[in-house]
Amino acid sequence: MSVKIECVLKDRCEIGEGPVWEEKSGTLLFVDISGMKIHRWSPTTNKKETVVTEKFVGFAIPRQTGGYLIGEGRRFGALDWESKSITTIAVIDEDKPNNRFNDGKVDPAGRLFAGTMGMEERPAVLELKQGSLFSLNKDHSVFKHFDQVDLSNGLDWSLDHKTFYYIDSLKYTVDAFNYDINTGCISNRRILYKMEEGEGIPDGMCVDADGRLWVACYSAGRLIHIDPQTGVRLQTIKLPVDKVTSCCFGGKDYTDLYVTSACKGMDEACLAKQPLSGCIFKITGLGAKGLPAQSFNG
């Protein structure tokens, strides 16, 4: 089977991000960060539902108890989709009012990991070293793992739960940590993969059922497929838009790779050349499949 790339949702996001496949409903959940919207889209019906937020929204994650956990501005919030109401769980970075959440993901034990960054002057241009990486536990306690982060981004875990993968975008690397699933502690940070010339800025990522990484390359219009055991790039998938932001596997058997993108900062001439910027893509025929997303336990 050959690789096929199709634009499946042409409603343009400013900064589409954080795709999560919801198996129960067969829908794709994703956010438009600066558009301040959370979307839920059904590939079967092509129907899209939207919740509008008051501030930039970095991620939305299903909760085991129902509803969603979101990162809006500097707060962890509980979203009730039906009433569209958001309840504050915790506020972070209180000494840095210009910070906001970016990417977030749930570990195999049900904890949420999410990072912050300074507000951007324009895409990928911001005050550096302002962000941190946090985790939110079942009891809603918050733990800061480290600070001095430029632009906290993609994150995921190895299949044996012993390694945590993390991207601080402006370091241009994909990093790995030792991971303790029992405590949620991380240690022994090292570089797993360093972006090569032309590969752009590492953004969101996901792990497939073989334990390999798929990394969205912002400004370079591609995804790269990495073997974390060797640090070798196995494959490059080029897309028709430069601002590729994140990806997740979904569909009935998790063989569809959904990809988000952005258009913020593009002028009319750029948009005329890349009219699908900000849209959602589906890639099939990769010969890879994913795993169900973890839901927040709390």
UniProtKB/TrEMBL annotation:
Domain of life: Eukaryota
One MF term in the entry's GO annotations: gluconolactonase activity
Positions bound to a divalent metal cation: E17, N153, D203
InterPro entries the UniProt entry points to: 6-blade_b-propeller_TolB-like, Regucalcin, SGL, SMP-30
Record keyword Hydrolase present: yes
Reactions catalysed, as given in the entry: D-glucono-1,5-lactone + H2O = D-gluconate + H(+)
Entry cofactors: Zn(2+); Ca(2+); Mn(2+); Mg(2+)
Main location: cytoplasm
Active site: D203
Protein name: Regucalcin
Organism: Umbra pygmaea
